Amino acid sequence: MSIDLVENLSIPAESAPVLGSPYDPSSFDRSVMTTYGRFPLALEKGEGCKVWDTQGREYLDFVAGIATCTLGHAHSALVETVIRQIQTLHHVSNLYYIPVQGQLAKKLIDTSCADRVFFCNSGAEANEGAIKLARKYAHTVKKIDEPIILTATASFHGRTLATITATGQPKYQKDFSPLVPGFHYVPYNDVKAVETAITELDSGDRGVAAILLEPLQGEGGVRPGDRAYFQRLRDICDETGILLMLDEVQVGVGRTGKLWGYENLGIEPDVFTSAKGLGGGIPIGAMLCKSFCDVFNPGDHASTFGGNPLACAAALCVLETIERDLLLQNVVERGEQLRAGLKAILAKYSNIVAEVRGWGLINGMELAQDIPLTSSDVVKAAMNEGLLLVPAGPKVIRFVPPLIVSAFEVDTALQALERAIIAVV
What we know:
This protein folds into two domains: 15-74 and 326-424, Aspartate Aminotransferase, domain 1; 89-324, Type I PLP-dependent aspartate aminotransferase-like (Major domain) (Aspartate Aminotransferase, domain 2). The protein is built from 14 helices and 17 strands. The chain has helices at 5-8, 25-31, 64-67, 76-88, 99-110, 123-140, 161-166, 170-173, 191-201, 227-240, 309-324, 327-348, 375-384, 407-424, and strands at 43-47, 50-53, 58-61, 116-120, 146-152, 183-186, 206-213, 216-217, 223-224, 243-247, 271-274, 285-289, 353-359, 362-367, 387-388, 390-391, 396-399. The protein has a seven-stranded mixed beta sheet with strand order 4-12-11-10-7-5-6, with helices on both faces. A four-stranded mixed beta sheet has the order 1-2-3-15. Strand 1 and strand 2 (50-53) form a beta hairpin.
C-alpha cells in the first residue's frame, strides 16, 4: 500500500522537505563524522525487501538495517501506525503516564518471561540499563562492594564506554581507555571457564554479580549458543544468586524463529535486552527483568526519549503484525530454505566456504581461513549483483533479511550470492 505522506499529513507541497536530493559524497564526508566505513552506495527508497539507490538501481536487502527492519520497508501497517500516532501525540515525557507505553510493556511481559520493562532508545542503552541494574542488585541484595560482570570473548554489547568494555573484542576498545572497571571475559560456550572465573573472582569485597551473554553472537561471527552450556549457566546462577542477563538486541523479536532468542536455549534469563527489530526501524530499546531483581527506584535511571508514544506505537505494531501475519512460521521456513541453499554453495565451493550456521533469519557463511578472500570482498561483489549483505567479522558474511522475506526472494539472493562468489575467485 502506497501512502502519500505529504497529502496525508496536510503539509503544503511548497513547505515539504526535499527528499531524494542529489547525493554528493564529498559534501557528505565534509559534514558527517567518518565513524563508519561506508560502502559507496546511497539509498533513498525502500519497499518490502527491496531498496533503491539515488541512481534508481534496485537491490534485494538482506541487511535490513542490520537486523532492524523487521517488517521490511514502508510496510503499510507500520506506516499507518506512525502517521496516526505522530498526528496524535509523538512525545511528552516520562514525568507522566503514557498509555501506549503501558500497552507495549504488557505485550512484552505477556509474550516473555519478564515482569518489568524499562524503555530507552537503543541496544547500547538497554545494555547500560542491565549493567546498572546488576550493579545495584549486587550492592543492595548480594552485598558485593566490587561487583564483576562476566561477558564472552568475541561478544558485542554496544558502543558506550560501559558496553564497549563489556564487549569482548579489543578492536572496539582501542584508544578509549581507561575502560570501565568490573568486567571479566570468558570464552563463549565454555562452562568450565565460567566456573573457574566465578571461583577465582570471588575474593574479599569482589564477586561475580551477573553473566551477560548473547544467545547467538552476531558481530562475533553468527555463533549460536550451545543449549547445554546455557542450561548449565542457568543452574549456576540459581545456585549462586548471580544474575543471568541475555543481550537479545540482534536476535530478539522473531529473528530466530522464536519471538525471543532465549527460547532456543530452553532457559529463562533474569534480565534481557531488546532493540533493533523491536521498532522495525523506529528507534526504541528495552531492558526487561523479573520482579525479584527490579531494584531500581525513582531517579536511579532515566531516558528522555525512552518509551515515547511514537516509538511505543511502532513497536506494538511490529509485535502485533508478527503475530497476526504468522511471521515466526515464515522465519522458520525461509531460514531453513536459506541455510539449505548456503550449504549447497558450501558443497560446491568447499575450497572457499568453510561453514554455514545460524537460527531462523540470522545466518552466517564463514569463508575458509587459508584464502585471502574477506567477507567485505564478497559483500562488495554481491552489491554489484543487486544483493545487500553485511559482514560479521573479517571472514563471516551475515544474512539478516526482513522477516517478511519470500521464498522467491531467498532463491534470488542465493543466485546473486553464487554469482558474487564466482566473480571474486
